[in-house]
Predict the structure.
Amino acid sequence: MNSMTGDLLETVVKIAFVIGLNLGFFAPMLGWVERKQSAVMQDRIGANRAGVFGFTFIGLLHSAADAIKLIFKEDFIPRGADRMMHTLAPVIAVVPALAAFAVIPFGGKFELAGHNVNLVIADLDVGLLFVFAIASIATYGAVIAGWASNNNWSMLGGLRSAAQMFSYEVTMGLTIIGLVMYYQSLSLVVIAEKQVDFWHWGIIYQWPAFILFLTCAIAENKRIPFDVPEAESELVAGYFTEYSGMKFIMFWTAEFIEVVTISALCVTMFFGAYHLPFISPDMLVSIFGGGDFGAIVAMLIGIGVFVAKICALIFLQMAIRWTLPRFRYDQVMALGWKIILPASLIWIFLTGLAILLGLMPTV
Amino acid sequence: MAIKIKKIEKGDGLTLWEKSYLPEIIRGLGITLSHFATNMKSLVDEFALGKGRDSRTIMTLYYPEEQPVIPPAYRGRPVLVSDKNGVEKCVACGLCEAACPPACIHILGGERDNGDRFPRSYVLDGSRCIFCGLCEEACPKEAIVMSDEWRNLCQYDRTKMIYEKETLLRSEAQVQKRLDFIRSNSFSRDRY
Amino acid sequence: MSDNKHNSDFHKLHHTELLTLNMGPSHPATHGTVKFLITLDGETIEHLDVEVGYLHRGFEKECENQNWNGVFPYTDRLDYTASALNNVGYALAVEKLIGIETPDRCAYIRTIVSELGRMSGHYTNLAAGALELGALTAFIYFVEARELLWDVIESVCGARLTHNYVKIGGVFSDLPPTFEGDIKRVFARNRELWDEFAKLLLRNRIFVDRMRDIAPISPEDAKAWGFTGPCLRAAGVPYDVRRAQPYLKYDKLDFEIPIGETGDNYDRFMMRMEELNQSMRIVEQCIEQMEPGPVNVNDPQWRQPAKDNIYTDMESMIFHFKNAINGVQVPKGEVYFPIEGANGELGFYLVSNGGGKPVKCRVRPPCFQLTSAVSFLVEGAMLADLIPTFDMINLIGGECDR
């Protein structure tokens, strides 16, 4: 096998894995988690009626039932809507959410049969910038959906989402400058590698950045408490009021995948990426006897740890979503510009000061 | 008794600590997640360890596997009560027809050979009935009572909701619970 | 600047225009059916018109065709979140017209079901308030509390929503023997849920920012708009019909009237939260003070007689048949009787010509007056403020539109 074919094969497998993980596992599972977790938090049992031959699998089949139902539903485009934009908007929403995953490492670097395997689709030097750049594109999905629907409620939702997402993007970039200064790199792969040592996990020195970043990220994802663009009691369903069938499910999927992406980013930057605490991948390889077998086991453990950490953060995000009330539109903006932006600037200053004084040794 | 006024404490609003959002978010998460934990424990207790219903902290009734407990006061479908011979007690006096607010009862009275009055036809339009129980109250013979039947009250076809005498007839044993309830709790002499 | 805004030149100059929106009649926030015609300047409400009447079903006309007793099922459907209160109000009005007094135990039972009804109304309102701010878990906690309450109500009244429990001169049945235990169990759980609900929202800055100082009203304005109930008390006026003109057993019960300061949404919310506690206290006191005894007026002319008497007592039989067919012959006259409903003063104005049917059965629905003030409250506020304000006003379609 020459290295070209090997690289190609590796990339294809990795892309298939990431897309499969997101669309095949996380998106439907999140539908289930959202229903069941909220249900158990609220003293209910949640949806459990969809079944095959009487087996309901604690409601897991509802995601499949939803997907089948929505695929076969009429695809409705309101009169006076811009047909092309109306169709394009959900695609614009869902693709960036997936694309951001390209630069997130989901496992370490291993040597497998003489071939270097790096478990990230694109090892970019400016991975973080890429994520933010891609996230900006997702804004257009909501805005175009709101505008193209020819509905006043949708337009209000689209406008709200435009303002909200643009402001939070600015802030989100600033919240993790401190982290970048700490790790001295914009590459997510490098940041992940530097967290081999438990005491270098981002959360330990950079926990304020984590709180700020998570807030911005949830705001960027338009979920409660920041769901003003789709606030169902105010704007019916905001920018996707006029969507049905498969297009609706695409917005839904985009939202869920963004939840996963946010969790993955947080894990990569703050929670030691694919590392177990105190055990480095090299140690894992040697524990399992070294060689290809050891590498594969260590790789699988790394991926498993990564997914498990993502799941924990998803749980946290879901819990937040089902606990809090919603902001008002102007309060969201005030929070972004008047609290989080100054706070992240202050944090950048403090991090710089600490690094300069040697209180926060860079890695 | 004197008027007591309680002024709601509004204070100066939130403390700076509370204004930072975080403590209250964490407290809120604490409440919802503690519900999550207790409910998960009760689910495990009930379905994995088989401890039964008593350990359940979840509100939901697992309908239709479990059926709701209907109190005797419940007003379900009004039914006609038959005597020991399986013949309706109704004497077609028409009081229920007159008392019924939405006018859903239609009676056509007749006389038997022995001179007893009986309803030649007794039609209760279930699509109009509002389950108020005034027919039961008006009936001097305990011939119509509100049963605990709540299934099939809704139909896709309105003609199926028009009940004839034959479909409404129940033996005394079938409505014993309700009869006991109204005899002891509603219309007995010691309630007056 | 603000004057300029209303000038059409301003919009021409800035290439903008005001946005006119139809909010409702079917909109998630308009529980019940009501329409707002909103003129928006960005997110700010420039002008708002409330259009009610979508749930009009001719209650007053319907009553003219019913016996005095046959009106009860229709009163259930006025404020359907607290239907026991409507029953009680109507029964008291008719009894005032007739001039009869119900036995002690009956009055206590009526007090209990009124308070249970008030609680159910407040639970619904507060839960919906949380829901409309997006706090779904808080919503479900109060729905759970209401559900437990409804189980008790069902075991007393026979229905969860449309009780039709109170009758002229009495109540349908005595309290079931399980009642005391049920109340103890349910109130204990409801107090827990109350605490959790309060902890989830009341000190949370997101909630406080959404509710505090939103749509405030001064006591003078509130009185001028005809506010009653929690909304008036939130403005700081300690007016409660239960204390101002005590009826039933309220003069023997110890409870507090909560009042607020500024009449904003937060105060309105807190009024209802506090009244839940007071209602629980009232019910517990009633259970303590209550003694066994009759629950109906022993006079077949007004209250239908015991079933055993119908065939054994001549007078009972005559009145039973006459009243069931022609209705209770309420003496000629007219009467107004207010009670404290869940939303405020719920008054029944009845006119009788001495026959078996009311000539006029007019309801003073508390939320009609409140709804009329919505535009006064929210003009100049933001679109998102309309939702909690409207919820705290608590328009109940069945009651407002009748």
Observations:
- Chain C touches chain B through 72 residues (CB under 8 Å).
- Residues 104-132 of chain C form the longest helix (29 residues).
- Chain C has 19 helices and nine strands.
- The beta strands of chain C are 19-23, 35-41, 44-51, 166-167, 170-171, 256-259, 333-340, 345-352, 360-364.
